[in-house]
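Structure Section — protein described below
Tokens — whole-number codes for backbone shape
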Amino acid sequence: MAPSVRVFSASWSHYGVCAELALAMKGVPATVVPVPYHDKTELLAATGQDYLPALVWDGTVVPWTDIAPFLETKVPSPTLYPNGNRGIPTVLERWGHQVLEEKVWRAVVTRMPPTFADEKERWVFEEIQRRVRGPWEVLELRREEFLADLAEELAWVDAALEGRDWLLGAPSLADCGVYGGLSSMRVAGEPIPSKFGNLTRWVERVERLRATGPAPTAARPRESGGIA
């Protein structure tokens, strides 16, 4: 019998996107439970914690830090770690989350509010980002600087993909982390510079694979009222 698998995630969560892609790579049927930026009530009730993503596998809650190794134990093939090496995929995954993602986020943060359908969610997102990053007007003035800084990182990914379909030759945790890191570009509608042909084709390849993975549940209407 197939396990019951849910992953609590969000389009703006780079770790969540990474987990969804890992599930797709493993061919694990799962359901994505979308978590609003401003309301983690359902997540807390189901998992007892408020970090994204969270995997629930037949009732067992797996925190975001443990999802990849947990999946590897449950579904060893296809592996997230080609050639029996866990170090290289893990290093590249962490670079995607800890370096690339921040440079992407700085470049697109002012383009993100319109992607939130819920007015409260949009307001909370922008308010928190203003407090963390400063005035919107300053971020807009520096956007070209941020995009140029981001392009330097994208150039490294493009070079790493020369002559290969996947970062390590086969789909791996490295692809999950790097794609997760740049996924906010896709959400915000920020184009990948055309000069990065290898990267562009890789993103298309990744997104075709991701489309075979977890399907989101239908969003439920939320009551109006104060900010959650």
Q: What stands out?
A: Residues 218-228 have pLDDT under 50 and may be disordered. The radius of gyration is 18 Å.
